[in-house]
Amino acid sequence: MTDRAYQLFEEQQQARGINLEQVKKSLKALKIETPSWGYGDSGTRFKVFQKVGVPRNPFEKFEDAAQVHALTGLCPSVAIHIPWDKVEDYSKFRSHAESLGLSIGAVNPNLFQEEDYMLGSVTNADPAIRRKATDHLLECVDIAKETGSRDLSLWFADGTNYPGQGDIRKRKAWMHEALAEMYKAMTPHMRMLIEYKCFEPAFYHTDLADWGMAYNQALKLGPQAEVLVDTGHHLQGANIEHIVAYLIDEKRLGGFHFNSRKYADDDLIVGSTNPYELFLIFYQILSAGQDADPAVRENVDNIAYMIDQSHNIEQKIPAMLRSVLNVQTQYAKALLINHAEVEEAQRNNDVLAAEDAVRRAFEFDVTPLLHAIREEQGLPLDPMKAYLSSGYPKEILARGKGGASW
Amino acid sequence: MTDRAYQLFEEQQQARGINLEQVKKSLKALKIETPSWGYGDSGTRFKVFQKVGVPRNPFEKFEDAAQVHALTGLCPSVAIHIPWDKVEDYSKFRSHAESLGLSIGAVNPNLFQEEDYMLGSVTNADPAIRRKATDHLLECVDIAKETGSRDLSLWFADGTNYPGQGDIRKRKAWMHEALAEMYKAMTPHMRMLIEYKCFEPAFYHTDLADWGMAYNQALKLGPQAEVLVDTGHHLQGANIEHIVAYLIDEKRLGGFHFNSRKYADDDLIVGSTNPYELFLIFYQILSAGQDADPAVRENVDNIAYMIDQSHNIEQKIPAMLRSVLNVQTQYAKALLINHAEVEEAQRNNDVLAAEDAVRRAFEFDVTPLLHAIREEQGLPLDPMKAYLSSGYPKEILARGKGGASW
Amino acid sequence: MTDRAYQLFEEQQQARGINLEQVKKSLKALKIETPSWGYGDSGTRFKVFQKVGVPRNPFEKFEDAAQVHALTGLCPSVAIHIPWDKVEDYSKFRSHAESLGLSIGAVNPNLFQEEDYMLGSVTNADPAIRRKATDHLLECVDIAKETGSRDLSLWFADGTNYPGQGDIRKRKAWMHEALAEMYKAMTPHMRMLIEYKCFEPAFYHTDLADWGMAYNQALKLGPQAEVLVDTGHHLQGANIEHIVAYLIDEKRLGGFHFNSRKYADDDLIVGSTNPYELFLIFYQILSAGQDADPAVRENVDNIAYMIDQSHNIEQKIPAMLRSVLNVQTQYAKALLINHAEVEEAQRNNDVLAAEDAVRRAFEFDVTPLLHAIREEQGLPLDPMKAYLSSGYPKEILARGKGGASW
Amino acid sequence: MTDRAYQLFEEQQQARGINLEQVKKSLKALKIETPSWGYGDSGTRFKVFQKVGVPRNPFEKFEDAAQVHALTGLCPSVAIHIPWDKVEDYSKFRSHAESLGLSIGAVNPNLFQEEDYMLGSVTNADPAIRRKATDHLLECVDIAKETGSRDLSLWFADGTNYPGQGDIRKRKAWMHEALAEMYKAMTPHMRMLIEYKCFEPAFYHTDLADWGMAYNQALKLGPQAEVLVDTGHHLQGANIEHIVAYLIDEKRLGGFHFNSRKYADDDLIVGSTNPYELFLIFYQILSAGQDADPAVRENVDNIAYMIDQSHNIEQKIPAMLRSVLNVQTQYAKALLINHAEVEEAQRNNDVLAAEDAVRRAFEFDVTPLLHAIREEQGLPLDPMKAYLSSGYPKEILARGKGGASW
């Protein structure tokens, strides 16, 4: 059935003028970074449920991540969080990763889990705390040098809970000071990815509240600073694909933290709430990938796709598999958009034809295509099934409960 | 200055036809229940910051609550959470409360902090877990008998994170089964207050998601079941005062969990984000309090006003003082509405006059009025200042860190 | 290619245990009512753009609607709006409809376009206006008798723009009075479908603001009153499929006004913003359709599926075609859910398997299936293409501009 | 009573360290521009209700605006909308304004009410329409020269309703082209105020969707381009005062379009939904007004305060009076903030003290203060009452119905 399905799929797409070899090439080039913390226990403010088999240290987290990569071919790098993934010997850590077929990806500083940071880290009114926080940023640059990481992903919990609590403009200046100091410490091949978030854990104002604030910082810092879009960090109704297109057009889209939400920053499996939104994000990216301006195309080529989720109730590795498979599926669908057709309808101001040309690609079932590339790559056709029927799920039970929290 | 201020205030209000003696009587009758968990440490999913001086057990929580009551005269009862406030000997607990001038208020079951409840408590697909959860509800009825509590406040974290995860309609039936069993166990003087919440910690669907679902359960259970409105548990834009008016009109408003939010369920100090909303809630209550129907008036008289906040970054006792003072302030302002004037403008379809008649009451400064009743009640004019300059803040430092979490 | 595609599809689905004959039968039974006003010009508060070829009267609206039905086989009835579709002789109107293969569907009173209704119709403080509004409701019952319509779809713009402007509880009582009078006038085979809406055109409070308020009215009126869910009439984040499941479980889901929105009540083509949401609505309906309780199944069988959109910038007939085709597509996908598989995963509390069992059905391409049933019904395989290449689009240009507004 | 009230108020504020003479000076300097269209009929997409007495032409609109200024002393200029306020002879128009004690304020182009602009004006895929739209912008610059207006307020309805409908990045470029051409045509004393809006009338994407997009355009255009904040044009939850503080800090806050909303862009009377938000906006402005950087202070001094409302159900002139009085009231309250006290609490990370220092100013009743400055300016103490008891409301009835729409 699989062969016939692919054959039929191929005929269909060729009839639409889609170059399937190019599509396959693009699909095989897709890389999605998984986060070390996505393999640990996480939860809500009400409770962190503890799962049996959760990794107990950074090394085990990478072992789990290696499973995801081995089964999907999609996830050769793993983001780390400092100090959660702090180790004594980074060269040993790096070797461990490499022995698993992985590399260490983005370094994520943590400036929200110490008592000192209750009222802000780099924007705290207390200069000693600001210094301490900035030092941690510099420490992360040093770690990135050791791990060979290109990207430094910055998310700040900094903000206030009440009107008047903080001086918004002073805090803005302090934020810039810290980022500027960190920026200066980076090597030329490094990138600073600046994340924004509208609220939580700050409930009145967040110092970097939206893409505009992150972008403005990046502009002032220089070309190695870019914006990181976390798909869950927007107010209800925000058109995320618009922001994505905008940032690429300004050559400042650094990457994504993928996840899904229905209400606030729910951190669910990406693609599980509104898969069409994920598809539309890729539509914007692929459309920009055909731009006449090489700088725009270069930005597209350098987007870091990363998962950032909290698997509160799910088995961690299957949840990660589902996540990267969802990304792959929507990316594959977006690759089936016939851009010439869309553009012609747009040029003619033909609203319904343009909408149809985009949506139609979403409606194809890309399973035959994904099976074909997996077969060509020597991967299991159904990575989830392969995982569940492997020995690994049972093997890790020996770790017991009480593994790493986040 | 105080006397002259009150004199002037009195003249102003009398000129508007406000019966200040009645206003003062109403103000003195206002009772706001504080929650035992509001004195403990709480936080966000990112971090629970630990404060020095936080109470270490239910007894100390009541001691702190007694401070709030002593300084404001507003908070003679304290809600408890089971098992957080589980004690061996409830008569001893009750005596302790009474010795502090307090009574034990609403009993709140906790069905969200055990591993078993990860996928639901009373709506879990596993009948053994449903049984366990229902037994906890029955246990809380028993505790309420021992503590002499009238109200059982029920909030369920039950829900799902993904489409398909649970059978929405079966879960609805299971919810009803559990509530019906609990309802039957209650004594005739008890009330079941059913809370609703749109999301968090469930991120796709929550079994009791809105007032309509809580109300419908109450309808089916009987007259001792009513709806509990938590001001933070609504989707953005929801008109909470409309819901309040509606529920009173159906004689099913059981009470409030007061707090404030700008984004989701932020659990900030009530009145700190949009004080006008709190005022408008009281406007609806006071308007209904003049209804011709005695059943409506009876509902108004029996509303349980309760605080439900998470003081993540604030000093706990001052945060509670600020909360109850904010409630008192907005209630005082609402008492200055001239209902006859509002109604005449409404009758005449005079939009601007009606709006003005309500808003004008909000614009008065009620400080002279509050000073006057505090003086008459032998309370400090400025309870916050009195607290901060008392010995208590220093005294509790001896408790050290690591007090009760929530 | 079509035949091979269907053959493959059939094999796939049979391998999953899906009874395709049953699926086809269900698909052929699907009926979607289109609204007469969807063929007229509509717009935003900023501008109503006028299209050439828009029908100039109710008779021409039905001619356009007949095109949609002829090409899709899905739309045998057309909802009317009074007074927009008021005619002198309803038997002539009915004959016209029948001659086109159509019947007259739901009757929609209009209580928002007369100067008198500026501050409310059935909830206006002025009793004369309430009387006039109620009389219009009764007039619509009479018209429904003449048109043979079963359903009376009620949407009220009634509400207020400012706090204090109206007495919320009095207005609630007036609403009930009017509905009760109308209910009494209905014949036993009629149904009152009560719509709710959170805001617009009322900007502070709307008298029937949410499903709970509509449901509560229906409960009090009697079994012929049910709730009408307009997919655009919810606050951001509302879980519409939850509400749908809830109402069916209470046997009070009357029907739908389908459309799509990203922000507020945008009235876009249904399925164009988040097609997964539409699929999930059908999942709930189909799940309930297998309930053991015959009353639940009866409710499912009697749901009125209706389009309610404003085609501000689109060509009207193509926009309607796209709408009903989107509904058909998502319904077809939902029919591919293997409920036994979902239920087993739910029973086992297997979160990811349950989610997968639902989502997988969404990912199938149902084009071969839709082609098959269209072929069996003698319909064009691609109704949109068939319409665009027919003579009708040119023919109606002769109508010129300035057709019916809404 | 008035004198005693002010005396008491003065004592209170002096005790708090507030310089009342400075406060009064600031209050007397407050200028709020009213919009010509706020005196005309407006409505929702459902209906524009027509009021008796609405001005029939630009000249009468200015006569109504003159009433508002005469009674409040706050509104010496009036914004105009082209072509609604297009006149043959602008010098005559200007003289008419001056004879009424008014000047012509901001010029607002209208690019949303012609058939050509259905799918965009300056971002339309059709170059001829883009040209036409840009020409209108240039025409408005010319008109501004004739009227002596400094500000050009630009709001674009441009956007799309469906994914794929338009090329987001091309439209971005076209927007910039048009603005750049207009910018070049401006005289050195002119300012371009760029407004943003998240949605409506475009329902999928709006070309200038948020402050970041407007700001980025301004940055690229040059120092005469600034951002215009319409308080209703934000997604739910957006912290508007944060955006205000941010823009001032970047010296790019051009001004405000004041109005109020509970749900979407409701265009209600400013301050009627959440007066505290308006107060907090002024808090940020006044805080920045004390900045050490003269460029920041200069930005504060040049903020254009403008009303932009749709009085759908209200009497127009009273609605405008209420609006400017609400602005004055909240501004007066914000002037009572003791910034030194706030800053000290912020410096000490004293959350509750800082919050209190801001909120306390909001709780004062500023009526005595407003009475005092009105008396000093020879204005009626209660402008609304003065208007209603004047002959003007009756006088304008002679205009009949059918006045200017918007």
TrEMBL record, chains A, B, C, D:
Extract one GO molecular function annotation from the record: L-rhamnose isomerase activity
Under the heading SUPFAM superfamilies, the entry gives: Xylose isomerase-like
Q: Name one Pfam family in it.
A: AP_endonuc_2
Q: Which Gene3D superfamilies match?
A: Divalent-metal-dependent TIM barrel enzymes
Top-level division of the source organism's lineage: Bacteria
Against InterPro entries, the record matches this protein to: L-rhamnose_isomerase (IPR050337), Rhamnose_iso-rel (IPR013457), Xyl_isomerase-like_sf (IPR036237), Xyl_isomerase-like_TIM-brl (IPR013022)
Which keywords has UniProt assigned to this entry?
Isomerase, Manganese, Metal-binding
Protein's GO biological process: L-lyxose metabolic process; rhamnose catabolic process
How is this protein named in the record?
A: L-rhamnose isomerase
